[in-house]
Amino acid sequence: MEPGHLAEAQKLSASMDWPHRIEDWAMALDLGHGLVALDDGDVFGTIMWWPYGESDATLGLIIVSADRQGRGHGRQLMEAALAEIGPRAIFLNATSEGLPLYTKTGFREVGVVCQHQGVPTRDGSDEVLDGACIRDLNENHVADVISLDNRATGWQRDRLLRRILADGEGLISGKGDRIDGYALCRRFGFGHVIGPVVALNDQVARTLIGAWIARCGDGFVRVDSPSSNGLSDWLASRGLLKHDSVVTMARGVTSDNTPAAPHVFALASQALG
Ligand SMILES: CC(C)(COP(=O)(O)OP(=O)(O)OC[C@H]1O[C@@H](n2cnc3c(N)ncnc32)[C@H](O)[C@@H]1OP(=O)(O)O)[C@@H](O)C(=O)NCCC(=O)NCCS
């Protein structure tokens, strides 16, 4: 995939009712690698992957145009991407349409991510953490934020976090030098995405997301949150209704151990993890 393919790739995702703008595709390509399926130069299939350090990657934006599905193109794209990715452990978030392909190519189900979105309510019922200190994330905090993110994910996502911060903004929670959570926010799709959000506990995560909701005004907001971390009911109560869910799948992951804390409360996106 090259920058010249992005306009057609965006049309392909729009044909699936996916909200990605051309800028969202450009950021994805800037951070990772992509392959396209072409017919006489026209894009009818895409797949992308993003390396996070030497041993991990996420995979996503896998699409075959509706008129060409069921003819093996999805598997061909997947096998070509897997050959590029090599022995890294891989995570992806699967739509129901993608599940058969991923199961057949060695992925297993490890979780569920709920897609919450809408125009948030402004009822002031935020459970603000007692004594919470929410601050703008600046360059001085970036190294600590990357370290917190690495403890939660096991991934080395320096480039991703710096790129999101270049396009958007971040908040941190914590007193003095201690950072017990961060939340980024950027334009994406129909409005803004709040994510990644990583925090020591759900109260810190709610406080950070609540602070972003207050800043986003009356605009459309999306949060992709792992169901295991229990924010779904609270997000829905803030007007971010559950729109859909995807199945998190892994391939080549040797350990099922998830850290005691911090945890991931919202993804950068379903594709980027
Ligand atoms: C997911 C998608 C990319 C698959 O592409 P495709 O070209 O239709 O897939 P293929 O024809 O290569 O089929 C892949 C495998 O899944 C199997 N499969 C597909 N649909 C199936 C179904 N409903 N039940 C069981 N198996 C199914 C195929 O038999 C094939 O297995 P095989 O290679 O062993 O024969 C395509 O359906 C798509 O673009 N969907 C919409 C966008 C989307 O949701 N993408 C996934 C994002 S995570």
Rounded mean pLDDT score: 95
Within CATH, the superfamily of the largest domain carries the name: Gcn5-related N-acetyltransferase (GNAT)
Helix content: 25-40%
Distance between the termini: 20 Å
Query: Count of DSSP E strands?
Result: 12
CATH topology of the largest domain: Aminopeptidase
Bound molecules: coenzyme A
In DSSP terms (H or I, runs of 4 or more residues), the helix count works out at: 8
Radius of gyration: 18 Å
What's the structural blueprint in terms of helices and strands?
Elements: H1 6-15, H2 22-31, E1 33-39, E2 42-51, E3 56-64, H3 73-85, E4 89-94, H4 99-104, E5 108-118, E6 134-136, H5 142-153, H6 158-167, E7 169-173, E8 181-188, E9 191-199, H7 202-215, E10 221-226, H8 232-237, E11 241-251, E12 263-266
Parallel strand pairs: 3-4, 9-10
Antiparallel strand pairs: 1-2, 2-3, 4-11, 5-10, 5-11, 6-7, 7-8, 8-9, 9-12
The protein binds coenzyme A.
